[in-house]
Design brief:
By secondary structure, this protein is mostly helical. It has 3 helices and 2 strands.
Length: about 70
């Protein structure tokens, strides 16, 4: 019997964002944008796509929450 693991291919940007969130889950999108040298608008798009894929989720709301890497 074979176990099939779902391996998700990450873009370089997604991997960079995940690495940042693992170090500091409370970081905001503006900080992420600075660290990966992209616009905040671009980071917002990446983050919403990553949430749809189930890679990350937001805990405890927008203001005082933090990101959880799945």
């Amino acid at each position: 019997q074979f176990l099939h693991f779902k391996v998700q291919k990450l873009t370089l940007e997604e991997q960079a964002i995940i690495n940042i969130l693992k170090v500091n889950p409370a970081t905001n999108q503006e900080e992420i944008a600075k660290q990966i040298n992209k616009s905040v608008r671009t980071v917002k798009t990446y983050m919403s796509e990553m949430q749809e894929k189930g890679l990350v989720e937001r805990k405890n709301g927008k203001k005082n929450g933090e990101w959880k890497v799945n």
